[in-house]
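pinned: reference chain
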Amino acid sequence: MYGFIIRRLLLLIPIMLAVSIVVFMLLPLTGDPERQVLLAQGVQDPSVEQLEAVRHQYGYHRPLYIQYIRWMTGYPPADPNENEDAGVMSRGLLRGDLGFSHKFQTPVLDKMLEALPNTLILMAAAFMISLALGLLLGVISALRRKTWVDYTGMGAALFGVSIPNYWQGLMAILIFGIWLGWLPVEGYHGLSYLILPALTLGTAQAGSLARMTRSSMLDVLRQDYIRTARAKGLRERTVIYTHALKNAFIPVATLLFLRLPYLFGGTVVIETVFNWPGMGTLLVKHGMGAAGGMGKDWFIVQGGVLMFLLMAVTANLLCDIAYAYLNPKIRYGEGG
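pinned: its structure tokens
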């Protein structure tokens, strides 16, 4: 198992390199990054001299490969006379420097570390809700196949899969926040503020999990070893939860971890809808220029996109490890 994990970790090196290139290219693709820097600083109509000064200060006059090397390592300096205390990125990504936010006048990493815990709280709550609802609906529907329970459960799962996150969030705000007044709908000042965004995000993910769980359970329940376990006189609860559910969980675990990147994407939408103070709000409202009519803060955009991509890559790694744990053939030769 340790060898399998080490091989997967080594495979992450070229993947992370490719991710860094993609994230870095977000800035040059804008076509005029120095203008965006000045707009983020509040300069609405920058002069040619100001644009030229920013271009040299950040090294935008250099070839792209030089800019990329500097973004990663901090070397070579953008300008021989560069002031390292001027708020210009100087240490490089490999040393944890994601740049300097001109809107907040603080390092991007500091702002991300402020927002990341809230995002992780929301994701963890939504993940547990999706896991509980998905497994419960899937198992019950499989055990009550072709009954009203099955049809109702799968209808609810189809509804969760089909309805967009933002629409669910808006309806939750309208019904539970405005009409009924049961729950707060904006910000995060306690556990009550977590309920609506976590339920909205979790139920959206639970639908596909429930459908996969039902399909996998039905397949396992037809196997010979299940009939043998029942023939031995084992209690039905033991047959279901000890023999059937563990084997049915192998494809479910794969889907569960592969859905994590979609959970990250849904977090961005839900945080924006509920004004949740997390990474999604930081990226969309502040990085993308929706706050105060200012320009895009591209260091926040780069840092936020990089963080979400890293979490997606980590989710895929966890998926591989979980699948290998549940199915030993994966780590012993077949696909390992």
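why pinned: The first strand starts at residue 100 and ends at 101. Strands lie at 100-101, 106-107.
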